[in-house]
Amino acid sequence: MTTTTRRVLVVGNGMAGARLAEELRRRDPDAERLTVTVVGEEPHAAYNRVLLSTVVAGGITTRDTRLKPEGWWESRRVDVVRGSVVTAVDVTARTATLTTAGGERVERWDELVLATGSVPFVPPIEGVDAGRLASGRQPGVVAFRTVDDCDRITVATESASHAVVLGGGLLGLEAARGLLARGVEVTVVHPQAHPMDRQLDADGGAVLTRVLSGLGARLVLGRRVVAHRPASDDRPPTVALDDGSELRADLLVVAAGVRPRTELARAAGLVVRRGVVVDDHLATSAAHVHALGECAEHRGEVPGLVQPGWDQARVLADRLSGADAGARYEGTPTLTRLKARDIDLASMGRVDVDVHDAGHEVLAFTDPVRGRYAKLVLRHDRLVGAILLGVGDAAGPLTQLYDTAAVVPRDRLALMLGRAVTRGSAPEQVNLAEMPGGAVVCRCNTVTKAAVVAAHRDGADTVAAVAERTRATTGCGSCRGAVEGLCAWLRSAEPDRGAGEPVQQPERPAAHHLDQRPTDDTTAPTEGAA
User: Fold this and answer.
1) How far apart (Å, rounded) are the C-alpha atoms in residues 278 and 288?
2) What is the CATH number of the domain that holds 376?
3) Choosing a second label site near 122 at 20 to 30 A (CA), which of 111, 292, 322, 398?
4) Which range among 3-7, 171-175, 392-396, 460-464 has the greatest average pLDDT?
């Protein structure tokens, strides 16, 4: 019996689209059932937006952000068309019109996936043209969204001494920290009363403001930029605020959030609200057309984070490949983490609950002088929300409790310190031997302890080998310490173990903290994955 090969066309070569192509090939490695074509507007290979703030800070180059090495996609029979724009889709004829450097071409498909992502939100500012900004032709003003934006910012810092960052959300603060690392004086302008207002309460925001000020940033809160004024013969470039004041701005970085790209879906007649509306199967209103990532609206929510897009890619790959035709996407727990040097901040779940709320138990710890703030929100003895600033040792165990919805320890002080109740009800740190196999080690890629153990049994006895096998550490990289700890524990458990033999518990296993984080932000406009 012959198998019909179906054509899958993915519009968008960002983190969601590239992950879908990878997941499809994992399920159909010989391309017997599916041909996969990915179309991307940018001329670059798919890259990790989570790492862009590190590029701005000078820690890595843009080349280091690539998701896969040269030749990886070709060797797996994924046709990647870079520097090309899909200008039209016919959902009846199942065709797409592509505009490339060589002209137009029509691509036929059996299944179409929209992974068009999002674009920077540019608030109305006199002197700033959104079109010119998007094309990189707005002098003195740069968005913070792509590797090209990073290059523009890097070039600008060679001559700029004062920068204004528009937006005090995740992206804005990451950009600000990167600019500070390059020796630029930075002012962050944010319209709300405290930074990261979607992830923090007022007390947490106040502590974060103090931390940022200690790092050298100036914050102007409750104000908006209304005009950008280029340099003249007798004055430097400035921005005007809505109270009439002005700030010097040799460089203005716009990081005010993102909005889903839906114009192609609208033109094709799909149902679009804030994003392209999809159901639990990630199907749109048109047959054989799907959407995922930052352009998709699922159950009324539009994710601005990387993790939901990757979770959606797994579900959609199961469905399109036939590996699990009944797979459903039911949402991704919200967890955001600020990826900036010298700032350790995680926020998850419900954080807008008052300490005296009758329906919840709320624990709080504030240490502004040392830049520490913790707030845990419990319901029925389970962690449903948390803010963790400057308490890095506690972040991993608490994230694990949040992810697994496990009952928390009765000792609330031990809980605040990130400890778990183990033998004899004595509070201890997370113990690798006693950690359940389902505990998530790498949250970016949903890699569990069991997956790392299985990879080790298969011969992956180094962090690099585990990364190749499971993708752990290849997202934001913050779980590397946990993976190293697991590898060391597994090696010490039975150094002479034969292949396939069960791993025994070592006599005195080391205690390690898991550190997991996803990538970026939420809602309208969403702050967007860096």
Assistant:
1) 12
2) 3.30.390.30
3) 292
4) 171-175
